Amino acid sequence: MATxxxxxxxxxxxxLVYGVLYWLGGLYLSAQGLAIGRGIIWFVLGALFIVVFPWxxxxxxxxxGYLWFSRILTLLVAWRAFEVGRIxxxxxxxxxxxxxxxxxxxxxxxxxxxxxTLGTAAMLARAAWSRRQ
Length: 133
Hints:
single chain; 133 residues; mainly alpha; two-stranded antiparallel ribbon; 4 helices; 5% strand
């Protein structure tokens, strides 16, 4: 069984992977003209989140401020999973072009990202609400 500190480190890695996938996906969709309401500031902030948030999550077992940051972030990521699930059920675009050719249905891509987002929320929750040893 993982210690509380190990759980926070695992959650930080999960968020890092999630953040990179989310950020790169957003950049790609924007380059394809499919991102709605996104500007360069969001991509700069996204890069900052990818660097800073995992660092803060990894320190979740060290103090109340870090712990509450992780708990609030868990709820925000869970909300994001809900929103991605809504996109999967009613995509705004029929398909998305893939790099190198071909297409993927928007709903399939959204479902895949829904699972990734939900997994990230679960890892954050596992750490943020774990008991002290």
